[in-house]
Structures are given as structure tokens and as C-alpha cells.
Amino acid sequence: MRKPPLSIAIVAVLFLVVGCLDLYRGLAPLFTAGRLHGDDVTVLAIGVAAVVGAVFLVRGHRWARWLLAAWMGLHVAISIDDVRKLLMHAAVFAVLLFFLFRSAVREHFRGATVS
Q1: Smallest Cα–Cα separation from 53: which of 86, 13, 89, 88?
Q2: What pTM was computed for the model?
Q3: Residue 44 forms part of a structural domain
């Protein structure tokens, strides 16, 4: 496995941290109340997507870029009713797209096979 560019490594670490926090938030009700609600399952799924995307981003899989872009795009979409959150998520989304799809990191995503 090749070493990822610094920007990709930073994005991956951030998504890994956020994904782990989502996994914790999604699983916490299972340990406190003994069951999960619909929202908890959604938070778990979002956390799993972030962790999986982060791991495969570092490994150079192109689809992981799209998964994380969709993950952030979902956050933009669900914050549409709050202007402050919408602007914050849109700004993070723009920065994320820049780091994931700029030409300087294109080489990292060449040659990784789908597995």
C-alpha cells in the first residue's frame, strides 16, 4: 500500500474520528436502554459509512471519495432548514470536495482495485 498524500490522510483521520463518535452515539442507547430506536440505527449507518470511507480512502479506492462526498452531501441536505448549519456544512463540503478531487491527489487513486 502506498502512502497517501497528507491532505487525504487528514481527511481520513477526521472521518474516522467522526465515524467512531457516530458509532458510539448510535450504540449508547443499546447499553443504557437495552434497545435501539430508528434514529440510533441511522446514526450507526452514518458512522459505519464514515469509518469504511476513511479506511478505503487511505487505501486509494476511488469509490471511497464518492462515499465520503455523498456522506457530507447528505449532511448539507439535512441541514437545509437551519441557515447557520447549512452554511457550515456547505463550506465543509466545498473544502472536502477540493481535497478529495484535486489533481494533486489523483495519483493516489490510480491503480487501486475494487475489493
Answers
A1: 13
A2: 0.87
A3: yes
